[in-house]
Amino acid sequence: METTSRVGAQGAAPGARSAEGVPKARRTVDGYLRAPFPWYGLDEAFTGPRWLMQVGTSADGTVQHGSTGHGDEPAIRPEAIGAPAERERFAVVVTVAASPVRRSGDGTGVLDATTVSSAAWLAGSGLLAYTWPPQLDHTLRDDWLDQQTEAAFVLADDLSGRDWTTLSLPVDGVPMPFHYRESEFGWVLAGTTRAGVHLGAYGRGMSAYGLGFAVVQDIAAYA
Predict the structure, then answer these.
(1) Which of 172, 156, 90, 151 is nearest to 123 (CA)?
(2) Where are the beta strands (DSSP E) in 1-119?
(3) Nearby residues of 28 by Cβ (< 8 Å), 6 or more positions away
(4) Which spans in the chain are helix H?
(5) pLDDT tens digit sequence for 111-156
């Protein structure tokens, strides 16, 4: 069973509260262009809007993962939660560079290996960034988010557990197996590719069963 260190996963991931809540004006293609691995998005069957999100880097500035958005840009404003939020239709694709256990760039520690569980963790915590129950008091959101993020980590660390099912989706035109789960907040899936990266994805209002993934030929087109 593949596992993901809690410290390693959190260090590699942008925090759920800030992961994808970056104002659009601050999202630039620069970080994506520095990545030594290919980026993935939905394949050409998806004809809706595409947009950049944010990359995650190691302490030495090496790009380790990042996300591309498709469809409606989900709101995280509390006044937007409720009926309007339920109408949002989006899917986010998370690309994670596959890597073994290795020394950190500054030589002061060890970085955990990235696995399919890493992609599942990033996708699960990413979905939570847009989830805020309308009945939840403003001051309690941090506690709720901490609890839900911990649950997402536990689920990602047990992809063979009963909370996950499997489905096959095309990646670069070739059917590949994915781990998949649904919740009241949306859906999450995780798998791998033949291009040396793991894929995570999450969304709401769009069926995961009809998705396909492909290498992004021009990441600037998302900007």
Answers:
(1) 156
(2) 40-42, 50-57, 63-71, 90-97, 102-103, 110-111
(3) 52, 223
(4) 6-12, 30-33, 83-86, 116-128, 141-156
(5) 466 889 999 999 999 998 877 666 666 677 777 777 777 888 888 9
The Cα–Cα gap between 93 and 202 comes to 7
The one-character DSSP state at 19 is: S
Question: 156 vs 120, 163, 181, CA distance in Å?
Answer: 5, 10, 10
β-pair partners for 166: 179
* Residue 57 CB neighbour total at 10 angstroms: 16
Name the helix (H) or strand (E) containing 5. none
Half-sphere exposure of 22 (CA within 13 A, CB side): 20
Is 55:13 a contact under the CB 8 Å cutoff? no
State the Cα–Cα distance between residues 73 and 223, nearest whole angstrom. 13
Cβ pair 124, 94 in contact under 8 A: no
Structure tokens that stand for 10 in this block: 């959190």
- DSSP 8-state assignment for residue 55: E
Residue 186's DSSP bridge partners are 183
Q: How far apart are CA 145 and CA 223, in angstroms?
A: 29
Amino acid at 71: G
One-letter amino acid at 189 equals: L
Question: How much is the pTM?
Answer: 0.81
Within 8 A by CB and 6+ apart from 104, the residues are 58, 59, 60, 110, 111
Q: Which two tokens stand for residue 4?
A: 């993901």
